[in-house]
Amino acid sequence: MKSCWDIKKECPFRGTDSVGAKCPAFAGRLSCWEFDWPGFHRAMPDGPEKDEWKRMMLDWCSKCKVRDSHGREVDCFLERLSA
User: Fold this and answer.
1) Which long-range contacts (CB under 8 A, 24 or more apart) does 62-71 make?
2) What does pTM read for this prediction?
3) Where are the domains of the chain?
4) 45-70 pLDDT, tens per residue?
């Protein structure tokens, strides 16, 4: 099975070292649909960065190519994030 960074050719992390990557899924070598985004978001301290992560995920993930092949999984974490 292809990872999200292989499916999404324009992923900024593709071909880079996962150690220290800003994307926690890539840093853990997990595809986005396998990562616990709602848990990650809940663990963040309140503030503008937390708000930005949520806005980014709800906007970008809902339009991402990964959703074509993993829509159910992506929709599930987006629904949990929206709640």
Assistant:
1) 64/8, 64/32, 65/7, 65/8, 66/4, 66/7, 66/8, 66/31, 66/32, 66/33, 69/7, 70/4, 70/31, 70/33
2) 0.86
3) 4-82
4) 999 999 999 999 999 999 999 999 99
Longest dimension (CA), the chain: 36
Tokens 């099975």 belong to 1
Q: Where are the alpha helices (DSSP H) in 1-83?
A: 4-7, 24-27, 37-43, 48-56, 62-63, 66-82
Residue with tokens 């709640």: 83
**Residue owning tokens 């993993």:** 70
Nearest to 75 by CA among 41, 43, 37: 37
